């Protein structure tokens, strides 16, 4: 799971990356969409970068809910490059919870798309 800010230059767009092997707790699909839950731990790169209105190093968990159409609810059927409405819930180590609505592109390869800054 990668968080990308299209407002930044292409070489700086990736803000945070959470690996399936050690940080993404679960990926759940339903008729409403897909949910990703990731842990933020001491191994998360760039703890000083900002995500969701706070520094990554202050977070403990991120939940991302992506709204997809029922026929696209399973990961293997989602098209690269399609934009979906999503909401992230950022749980901070001090118990504060922040939410952020955003548009999300899902992709099935190792390289995230470069997003336009328009």
Describe the SSE topology:
Blueprint: E1 2-4, E2 14-17, E3 24-29, E4 33-39, E5 50-51, E6 54-55, E7 59-67, E8 83-92, E9 97-105
Antiparallel strand pairs: 1-2, 3-4, 4-7, 5-6, 7-8, 8-9
H/I helix tally: 0
**Topology pattern, helix = H, strand = E:** EEEEEEEEE
The oligomerization state is single chain
**Helical content band:** under 10%
How many DSSP-defined strands?
9
User: What characteristic shape results from the CA principal axes?
Assistant: globular
What is the domain tally? 1
- Give the spatial strand order of the biggest sheet: 3-4-7-8-9
Low-pLDDT parts are: 70-78
Report the β-strand fraction as a percent range.
Answer: 35-45%
Q: Main beta sheet: strand number and arrangement? A: 5 strands, antiparallel
- Head-to-tail CA distance between termini: 23 Å
Radius of gyration: 14 Å
Q: Average pLDDT value?
A: 76
* Helix/strand/pairing category: mainly beta
């Amino acid at each position: 799971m990668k968080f990308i800010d299209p407002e930044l230059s292409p070489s700086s767009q990736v803000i945070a990356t959470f690996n399936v092997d050690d940080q993404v707790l679960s990926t759940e699909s339903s008729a409403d969409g897909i949910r990703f839950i990731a842990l933020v731990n001491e191994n998360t790169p760039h703890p000083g970068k900002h995500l969701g209105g706070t520094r990554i190093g202050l977070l403990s968990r991120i939940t991302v809910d992506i709204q997809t159409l029922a026929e696209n609810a399973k990961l293997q059927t989602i098209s690269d490059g399609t934009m979906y409405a999503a909401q992230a819930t950022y749980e901070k180590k001090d118990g504060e919870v922040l939410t952020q609505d955003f548009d999300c592109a899902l992709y099935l390869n190792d390289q995230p798309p470069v997003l336009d800054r328009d």
